[in-house]
Design a protein that fits this description.
Blueprint (H helix, E strand, L loop, with lengths): L17 H26 L10 H37 L5 H22 L9 H36 L2 H12 L2
Helix pairs in contact: 1-2, 1-4, 2-3, 2-4, 2-5, 3-4
Length: about 180
């Protein structure tokens, strides 16, 4: 097995090649946005004085759409480039890649359901209905939080060890194109 000079860092963590480090670094801003979303979502339905939660849901919807604009290219870099490259070594139907793809699908499904159900809100939205809608965002938050941790602690270090230097260069070139 080829060991690149950057493979092991001093603290025992695997040091990632630039392309994998980029994917990991993209989690920072996504985590900040994701935290803002869950904070907003958790506030929905918390105030007894509010009779109509429509505006709060529409504001949350705008923020979710903005988050997706950042999340989608990141997901494309993983699903379209990294996962297929790793699947050559570890397969795709079970194991880490299958889990990662399943979690992507679950998070996207929750977000899509929230967006679909808030696309045409009419009249007033009562507390219980608003909380049910916000739950999709909260659920996506939990899925993505755990998912990012798995990528950072398992998937990315595994990719660093599995992929050859040439494959890491190819990964870098392909993710830059997305």
């Amino acid at each position: 097995m080829e060991f690149s000079p950057c493979m092991m860092a001093h603290d025992g963590d695997v040091q990632l090649c630039p392309a994998l480090q980029q994917l990991k670094d993209e989690h920072g801003p996504l985590n900040e946005q994701k935290q803002q979303l869950v904070d907003m979502a958790q506030q929905i339905g918390q105030n007894d004085e509010t009779a109509d939660w429509k505006e709060a849901l529409l504001t949350l919807r705008e923020n979710v759409q903005s988050f997706l604009e950042q999340l989608d290219p990141h997901s494309q870099r993983e699903e379209g480039v990294l996962f297929p490259m790793m699947a050559q070594y570890i397969g795709r139907t079970s194991g880490p890649i299958a889990v990662m793809e399943y979690e992507h699908d679950q998070a996207k499904r929750n977000i899509a359901t929230f967006l679909e159900q808030t696309a045409h809100l009419s009249g007033t939205v009562n507390r219980e209905a608003a909380k049910q809608l916000a739950f999709y965002v909260i659920n996506a938050y939990h899925i993505l939080t755990e998912h990012f941790m798995k990528e950072e602690h398992v998937l990315f270090p595994m990719a660093e060890k599995l992929l050859s230097n040439d494959e890491k260069e190819e990964l870098a070139q392909k993710i830059q194109a997305i």
